[in-house]
Amino acid sequence: MLVLKRELKRHGISQSELARALDVSPATVAQLVNHGIWPKRPAPEPLKTRITEILNQDGGDVSADLFEEDRAPDSGRGAAQSPDRNTHTQESDLEDIMLLRKQTLSPEARRAFMLARDPFAEVSSSEDVFLTRDFRYVRESLRTTARHGGFIAVVGESGAGKSTLRRDLAEWIRKENQSVIMIEPYVLGMEDNDVKGKTLKAAHIAEAIMAAVAPREHVKRSPEARFRQVHAALRESHRAGNRHVLVIEEAHGLPIPTLKHLKRFFELEDGFAKLLGIVLIGQPELGQKLDERNPTVREVVQRCEVVTLAPLDSDLEAYLRHRFQMADKPLESLMDGTAVDALRTKLAGRGQYSVLYPLAVHNVVTAALNEAAVLGIPQVTGDVIAGV
Hints:
The chain has three domains: 1-75, 434 Repressor (Amino-terminal Domain) (Orthogonal Bundle); 84-128 and 312-388, no CATH class; 133-308, Rossmann fold. Helix content is 48%, strand content 7%. The chain has helices at 3-10, 15-22, 26-35, 44-57, 83-98, 107-112, 133-148, 162-175, 202-213, 223-239, 256-266, 284-289, 298-301, 316-326, 339-348, 358-375, 382-387, and strands at residues 151-155, 180-183, 243-248, 269-270, 273-274, 277-282, 305-308. With 388 residues, the protein is of the alpha/beta class.
């Protein structure tokens, strides 16, 4: 650790503030003050001059050995932040991470780490899907719903893997030659009221079912006649050996009346056989709409299983190993022993609120790989993770 770190604290200048003043990333400053690692660009001498100028602006003497290793016995022990402040800011900081712009692996990082394939690219087959115990349960629940009927809502934060589950279900139906017709109404621009966008109504769902099951039939105009037509088409298809599953993505945008109407679709039967399984996929707002304390959707909630996709948490290291293995790289060749712990701390803090979801992990690690390539260091370290 350089004397610079102690001097920054003495002058009341944070590493983030110094990074902004130098027009470099916080990770670059973290590597500099903690390990004396200078970036390739800009060159060290101009940086030293600029840092000295910044400290001089604050007044007082600046240590002559600013860029030497700090031998002071109490170096690095700054005043602890109050727990109240940490608690107050932690959730806000983690939410900011979830809103990080999509990160792309730079050509410099690809060359530096010999990555012919981006380890965080979209999965291209079910074999690439990482299965936590939670994820495996949800996947099997979706397949059971498709084969035997059922009503399930999959709730998760942005980037938690909801769309991956939908694609996995579609690929399973195709690859395993399952006699399941997957019905997916178009939800482009869907909102829960007609002021913000277009609502998805029961009539639209009926049209989607007819288009998938009996595409040559003209859809009836009367709501009652249309519903009878849907029932007859599903029954005929079922007797021909088909099963049907209705999958609605972005279901948090469904209006309450449509959620209530889904009960009637779910109740379509041929004897004891359910004719239509229903899968809703949406963000946490969907879980709020399906809250058992909401009397307006009581009859739906009593029939619908709500499952929430959990963060990676204890599966983080295994997930990273899985993703890097897809690029034929061992985890240890890209991230040192401190990096995984730093990533967990960055995305989960002290366990009060976690955003350890695949998308957030991808963005942070990709940004860290890019930064490590700029710094010219062989591995992503905890300081790089903390600084991006």
